[in-house]
Amino acid sequence: MRSKVLRLVGRAQKCIEADNGAALVLTAIFLIVLLGFSALVVDVGLLYVNRLALVNAVDAGALAGVQDLPYSPTLAERNAREYAIANGANRHGITTAVQNSSSEVRVFAFKDVDLYLARIFGYTRQRLTASATARVGSISAYVGVAPFGVVEQDFIYGEQYTLKFGPDTQPGHFRGNFGALSLGGRGASVYENNIKHGHQGRLAVGDWIDTEPGNISGPTARGVKYRMEECQHYPKCTWDTVVQGCSRQIIVPVIKNLEVNGRDSVQVVGFAAFFLEVTTRRGADSQVIGRFLRTVVPGELGDAGDYGLRGYKLVN
Predict the structure, then answer these.
(1) Helix, strand or coil for residue 44?
(2) Full-prediction pTM beyond 0.90?
C-alpha cells in the first residue's frame, strides 16, 4: 500500500515539473510577443510623429516657394528650401525643383529615424520620405474683393491706375457710374464696409454684378482712409516693398466694360491687385488711385484672364 502511494506521489511530482516547464516556455513566448508589440507601438508611434512633421515641412516649403512663381523660379526654389528647413526638415535631405513651365514647385525630403525596441529584431533605423507640390495659376474666384471695377486692359507693373473716378476726373463718361460696385447689397454703408474689409462673398469669373452709381464721396474717403491707416508695418509699405497681406494691397474685379447707364450689371473677367496710394488731384475725396501689382495669393484656380494676380494651392 505504501509503495502504491509513493508511486502516485512520484507521478504527481513529474506532472508538476512538466507543467512548470510548459509554463516557462509559455512565459518566454509571451515575453517575446509582448516585446514585439512594444516595439510596434513605440517605434511605429515614433515613425508616425516624424513622418507627420516631415509632411508639414515639405508642405510649408512648397507653399512658400510657389508664391514666387512664375516670375522668379530661382527664388522659388530657395524659399521652398529655407521654409522646409525652418519647419523641421533636415537641410541635407531636401531637394526642390520648379517644373511644368514654372507653374509648380516640388519639395522632396527624407529623414533617417533611429529605432529603439525594434533593435531586438535587428531593425536599427528607418528612412522616411515626403514630397509636396504646389501649383500657381490664374485666380478664377476670390473672397474679399474691394468694390471697385477696373476695365480690362494691358496693365503695366508699378503704374498708377484710377480705381474709382471722381466727378472731375472723367466727367459724364460713365453716365452716373464712377467705378464703384454694389457687392452683397446696395447703399453707401455696404459700399463703405466693402472698402474697409473687402466683400466677404465669393466672386467668380463670369459673374454679373451691379454697379453702385453716384460719386459716393464720403464713404469712399472714409473707407480708403481706414485701409491706409490699417497698415501697421514699419517702415510703412510702399508699392514695391508691400508686405503680403497689408491692408493697402487690395484685390479688385476686372470687368468687361463700364459702358452702362445708372445702376446696371457688368461682367467679371478676372481679378487684379493694386496698392492704394494717396492722391492730391482734384476730386481726391472720391477718387481712388492704385499702383498695379503682380502678386500671388491663396485662391481658387481656374480659367481666367491673366491680370497679374495669381493663386496657389497644394496639388499633392
Answers:
(1) helix
(2) no
Residue 208, CB-side half-sphere exposure with 13 Å CA sphere = 4
Rounded distance between C-alpha atoms, residue 238 and residue 249, angstroms: 10
Q: Which residues contact 178 (CB under 8 A, 6 or more apart)?
A: 164, 165, 166, 167, 170, 214, 215, 216, 286
Provide the pLDDT confidence category of residue 40 given band limits of 50, 70 and 90.
low
Q: Residue 265: which pLDDT band, with cuts at 50, 70 and 90?
A: very high
What does the pLDDT look like over 73-101, one tens digit per residue? 999 999 999 999 999 999 999 999 999 99
Lookup result for grid cell 528612412: 127
Q: Is 234 helix (H, G, I), strand (E, B) or coil?
A: coil
Cβ 180 vs Cβ 147: under 8 Å: yes
- Quick check: 309 and 146 in contact, CB under 8 A? no
Q: Where are the domains of the chain?
A: 2-123, 140-314
Q: Give 158-205 pLDDT, tens digit per residue.
A: 999 999 988 776 544 567 888 999 999 999 999 999 999 999 999 999
Q: 293: which 3 cell numbers?
A: 501689382
Residue 92 class from Cβ within 10 Å (0-12 exposed, 13-18 middle, 19+ buried)? exposed
